């Protein structure tokens, strides 16, 4: 069956666009022009784009149209326009990493994940705004300007993949790479009302990607649907000789696993930690999402969460220690080129004793084993709200303007950070709106390399709900 074709091509999801193109229902150039028209009309307000490669994208699309007309077989993402967080290196192109320090940096290598997307036919339209050096959960950026939530411009987008979340939500492109060290894919996904996947640590190569924390960084997509995420992951996952940390496990056909059938799927809801201080509209949307999953045949069981305080503390300790190791030379040479909150955070990292860092690393395996034993034994998935609270405004989380906002700023990633330390695959899908009209997200986590499980659950949920279909009025 041919993919549905929207009267506004920019409303098509990544898989819808690619499938419609493959079926001959749309032209790639028309798809790119529809996305460019939305960027031209609305990005001055949203501020998601750093570099727009307009002519290159149109040329690539025209070449795909010609190839398809000539009967050439093209990849599974041909016809799908994308843009990516400005920390994925492409040889010969500036990669700012959202910073003043790297505003003119031109890498000599191309990220493996970009090479794999290119080979699959994805049309790259340029790069996106992000938190400076990917180091905040809200998306503020003192150098390129803050990214604005397309649902309400006064609110934050989530970070650090701010432009990725905002741009996918605004229908500027069909998919975007983000990165996730403490929630930086899942937070902008939930806050902007799209789908975001953090795969198992090491599932996707990190070669050619700006590092933040060697132990917690993850590469992944922000897209419209779980089906989009499944196809994206199939294309990008797998061992890479350029990244010795990449996992050798075989890559399954994630999309083929999306049967819509979740009868017998066992879902644990870990009470206490993941709901501490949760806002009522968030909890209400989460509970409604659980009812949908139960109606589809999943079993829902409330369990006592294993102690997450050590996990939350250790993940912060690891990232705050590893980041200064990456930034040490720049901090000596260009300390004034960092935003105030970032330089103060990096300076603090230099004072963390080495034995505490080693302790945090050494406890990772035992705490993962404990979490699996206490939260996943007898279950397939752990479900939580992605963000405990209603979406905060940009002003409420601007710690450069007011350091008193620090607690609210850090609370944004309370439910996402633990899964980076534990290394578990985690999916966020939109599941409703709060009382102010801002999105709410459902977070699903599973055992290592069980991406197919969370994707199957997310897809089953999206087959009978339309939260992922809703788009902001700009």
Automatic annotation (TrEMBL):
Classification via InterPro entries: Amidase (IPR000120), Amidase_CS (IPR020556), Amidase_dom (IPR023631), AS_sf (IPR036928)
Superkingdom of the source species: Bacteria
Pfam hit, one: Amidase
UniProt-listed SUPFAM superfamilies: Amidase signature (AS) enzymes
Domain spans labelled Amidase: 31-455
PANTHER family: AMIDASE AMID-RELATED, TRANSAMIDASE
Protein name: Amidase
Species assigned in the record: Siccirubricoccus soli
């Amino acid at each position: 069956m041919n993919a549905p074709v929207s009267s506004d091509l920019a409303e098509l999801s990544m898989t819808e666009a690619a499938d419609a193109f493959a079926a001959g229902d749309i032209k790639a150039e028309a798809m790119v022009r529809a996305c460019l028209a939305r960027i031209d009309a609305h990005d001055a307000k949203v501020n998601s784009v750093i570099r727009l490669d307009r002519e290159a994208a149109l040329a690539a699309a025209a070449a795909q149209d010609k190839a398809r007309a000539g009967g050439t077989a093209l990849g599974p993402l041909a016809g799908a326009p994308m843009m990516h967080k400005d920390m994925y290196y492409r040889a010969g192109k500036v990669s700012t990493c959202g910073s003043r320090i790297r505003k003119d940096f031109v890498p000599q290598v191309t990220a493996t994940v970009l090479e794999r997307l290119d080979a699959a036919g994805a049309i790259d339209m340029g790069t996106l705004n992000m938190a400076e050096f990917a180091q905040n959960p809200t998306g503020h950026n003192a150098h390129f300007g803050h990214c604005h939530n397309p649902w309400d411009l006064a609110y934050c987008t989530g970070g650090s993949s701010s432009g990725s979340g905002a741009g996918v939500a605004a229908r500027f492109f069909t998919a975007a790479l983000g990165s996730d060290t403490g929630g930086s894919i899942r937070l902008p996904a939930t806050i902007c009302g799209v789908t975001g996947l953090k795969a198992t640590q090491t599932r996707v190569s990190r070669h050619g990607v700006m590092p933040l924390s060697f132990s917690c960084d993850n590469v992944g997509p922000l897209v419209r649907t779980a089906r989009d995420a499944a196809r994206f992951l199939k294309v990008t996952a797998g061992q890479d000789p350029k990244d010795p940390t990449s996992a050798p496990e075989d890559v399954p056909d994630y999309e083929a696993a999306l049967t819509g059938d979740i009868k017998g799927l066992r879902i644990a809801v870990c009470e206490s930690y993941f709901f501490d201080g949760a806002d009522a509209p968030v909890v209400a949307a989460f509970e409604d999402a659980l009812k949908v999953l139960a109606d589809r045949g999943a079993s829902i069981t409330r369990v006592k969460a294993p102690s997450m305080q050590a996990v939350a503390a250790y993940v912060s300790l690891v990232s705050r220690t590893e980041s200064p190791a990456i930034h040490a030379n720049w901090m000596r040479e260009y300390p004034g080129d960092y935003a105030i909150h970032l330089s103060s955070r990096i300076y603090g990292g230099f004072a963390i004793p080495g034995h505490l860092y080693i302790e945090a690393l050494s406890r990772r395996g035992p705490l993962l084993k404990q979490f699996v034993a206490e939260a996943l034994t007898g279950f397939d998935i752990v479900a939580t709200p992605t963000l405990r609270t209603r979406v905060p405004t940009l002003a409420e989380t601007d710690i450069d303007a007011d350091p008193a906002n620090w607690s609210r700023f850090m609370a944004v990633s309370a439910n996402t950070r633990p899964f980076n330390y534990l290394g578990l695959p985690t999916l966020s899908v939109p599941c409703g709106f709060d009382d102010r009209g801002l999105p709410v997200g459902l977070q699903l986590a599973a055992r290592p390399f069980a991406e197919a499980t969370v994707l199957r659950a997310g897809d089953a949920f999206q087959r009978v709900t339309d939260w992922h279909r809703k788009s902001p009025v700009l």
